[in-house]
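A quick aside before the break. I want you to see a complete sequence-to-structure record at least once, exactly as it would be stored in a machine-readable document. Don't worry about memorizing anything.
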Amino acid sequence: MSTSSTFLLGIGITLVMSLTIVTYLRNPLRKILTELCGTRDRADFWLAFSNTALVLTALICAATCRPDPEGSLVIQIATQLKWALAGALATLIVNGWVISRFIPRRTVTLPPAIPPQ
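That is the input. The structure line, written in tokens, reads:
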């Protein structure tokens, strides 16, 4: 297999992986964003933004790995996917952190302590 074919195979697997993650998170993320944004239109924008960031970051990270013409096909694809997963994970962590900052915190009021007798 040529180095170009190996590279494109890794990019294709990365794209499928990213789209799988986007599909898996679509409904739960839409519900949270709708609650936080107030309207479905605003939530849909931020959902599209998050999905685009996830896919593009994974693809950019995968594209930084150039195949070695002398290397093993499996090792080259694994290296490319390692960087793609790192990019996807970083995007998910940042996205989760940003969303968590906007979730209102409820204060818990505890009943007064009963003094020992």
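Two observations worth writing down. Residues 3-37 form the longest helix (35 residues). The two ends are 81 Å apart (CA to CA). We'll return to this after the break.
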